Amino acid sequence: MGVAVIGASMTKFGQRDAWIRELLSQAGEECLTDAGVTPDDVEHLYVSNMASGEFEGQTGIMNLLAHDLGVLPAYSERVDQTSSSGGAGIYEAWQSVASGVSDMTLLVGGEKMTHKTTGQATDIIASITHPDEYKHGVTLPSFAGMTARHYLERFDAPRESLARVAVKNHRNGVDNPKAQFQKEITMEKALESPIIADPLRLYDFCPITDGSAALMFTTEERAKEITDEYALVSGIGGATDTHVVHERDDPTVMGGVVESSKEAYEMAGLGPDDLDVAELHDMFTILEFLQLEGIGVADQGTAWEMAMDGATAKDGELPINTSGGLKSKGHPLGASGVAQGVEIYEQLVGEAGPRQVEADTALACNVGGFGNCVITTIMEAAE
Amino acid sequence: MTLEAGMCSNGHVSYPTHPLCPECGEPQDETFDLADRTAEVVTWTHSTATPPGVRQPNTLAIVAFDVTDIDDASDEFVRALGQVTTDDIETGDTVEPVYVEELRDPDAGIKVPESQDWDGYRWDPV
After folding, report:
1. Distance between CA atoms of A186 and A41, rounded to whole angstroms?
2. What whole-number distance in Å separates Cα of residue A102 and Cα of residue A37?
3. What pLDDT digit, counting tens, does each position of A130-152 carry?
4. B62: helix, coil or strand?
5. Quick check: B44 contacting A, CB < 8 Å?
6. pLDDT in tens, B9-58
7. Contact A135 B46 (CB under 8 A)
8. Burial A321-344 (b: 16+ CB within 10 A, else e)
9. E strand intervals along chain B
10. What are phi and psi of A237, to 5 degrees?
11. What is the 3-state secondary structure (H, E, C) of A103-160?
């Protein structure tokens, strides 16, 4: 059964006064309005969230949101797949409609993080690691530093190529009113910022963010009755890689990206050459290279050349992260994958405003942990 | 205390150990200690933004142990992640494991202290 996305919304990302309840309900309510459906229509509700219990002490948030939005007695479920909870929510929502179980599914992703110190937030996120990694004080940024060093040394890539990712995504974020940072940065600023996990510096990392995003899914038939503007989920795949990061055969290959994108391409009957725009999980600049290679757009060890050539800029051969990416838009864990879906949906239905590019086919790759779990989604514009 | 690697009947080696081999699904019915071996640094970082209870900066490295001398091992090396005893480290350096009773303060982080071990090995350049 064809699955369509008929509505999207997101709150402003950044440092917000609102707590998880308000963030989720704001995005959820706006998505109902955008899709033009009533709470009564919603049969399934998925809430993507990594750690509201750990961050805020609030658990059971699927029930909380279902009640606040008046979608009772819809089936509701919280989806946790760490940083790819949003992508996993897209997968669950797609399954619910594709299987014929639900005619109308609302997905809301959200996280409230900024009330914690950077150290506390880093520790909550680092708790996803294996106990034998955690005891050494490893953090997700330190995995990124070690991987970036290996990549640069092995493929003789210039350090500047990583800074170009940061500069590009900050440039894109200027045109996104929902982004945490709407501010350009220079190469000098990126290259001279404080070291966080060398060779990576402050501007190689996404910020800590509060925010929420939502998508409405229905059948293609129902979508046609409701609106002229919708996108189709034509391919989706999910895959899991090793929990222990150093156990991977090749430190520069994210197996979950390779496998999930392969699955999504096969389902859609498409390949990397068919993509017009993509949102990649640039939690760290190096991840944009690993994903460009994992989804087959670039050969291994060459994605840095695309950054240097401007091929991934908004006016480039394949625009990457027109939203500003996690880098500039922000990364409220459970919301990020949903927000990627919001961006590609808006690109496909022509609602991306100053960020608009010509696009009929779009991909979003949402990475959990350090490539531990990955969801790749392909959407196409309705004909 | 050992730095225990696991091996399945097909000779696949991993550190840490797993109940079933991540490569083929067979039980890891053999173990051996890496603590008395040297290893080569594959990559490293100085982590400056560390969580509560973790030294700052925290220099970390992924190292590779040569296991070609292990009978029946089909893998040539096995990797391990760990803290480094010094900030002065480079890719390709040879290191040896050095036992440390407490790698971070178990009471400062989010995890329940009793839920896991906190001792282990740091990599010391040879």
Report:
1. 48
2. 14
3. 999 999 999 999 999 999 999 99
4. strand
5. yes
6. 999 999 999 999 999 999 999 999 999 999 999 999 999 999 999 999 99
7. no
8. bbbbbbbbbbbbbbbbbbbbbbbb
9. 4-7, 13-14, 30-33, 39-47, 58-66, 77-83, 94-100, 120-125
10. -150, 150
11. CEEEEEEEECCCCCCHHHHHHHHHCCCCHHHHCCCCCHHHHHHHHHHHHHHHHCCCHH
The dihedral through the CA atoms of A173, A177, A180, A185 has a sign that is: positive
Contact call for A142 and B58, based on CB within 8 A? yes
On the question of pLDDT at B1 being above 90, the answer is no
Q: Between A and B, how many CB-CB pairs are < 8 A? A: 121
Residue entry with tokens 């979608």: A71
For residue B36, CA distances in Å to A130, B5, B32 come to 23, 12, 10
C-beta atoms of A251 and B62 within 8 A: yes
Neighbours of B100 (CB within 10 A): 18
Using the structure block, give the residue that is written with the tokens 């991934």: A312
Q: How far apart are CA B17 and CA B37, in angstroms?
A: 17
Half-sphere exposure of A97 (CA within 13 A, CB side): 30
The torsion angles phi and psi of A162, rounded to 5 degrees, stand at -70, -40
B86 touches chain A (CB under 8 A): no
**In chain A, pLDDT over 70 holds for what percent of residues?**
100
Comparing CB atoms, the residue among A119, A138, A244 nearest residue B60 is: A138
Quickly state the pLDDT bin for A62 (edges 50, 70, 90): very high
Task: Count the residues in chain A.
Answer: 383
DSSP sequence for A274-300 = G-SEEEE--SBHHHHHHHHHHTTSS-T
Interface contact B35, partner A, CB < 8 A: no
Domains, chain A, ordered by start: 3-116+208-226 (3.40.47.10)
Condensed to tens digits (0 to 9), the pLDDT of residues A282-314 reads: 999 999 999 999 999 999 999 999 999 999 999
Asked if A10 and A53 count as a contact pair (C-beta separation under 8 A), the reply is: no
What are φ and ψ of residue A28, in 5° steps? -65, -45
Q: CB-based contact (8 Å) between B120 and chain A? A: yes
Determine contact, residues A357/A343, Cβ cutoff 8 Å. no
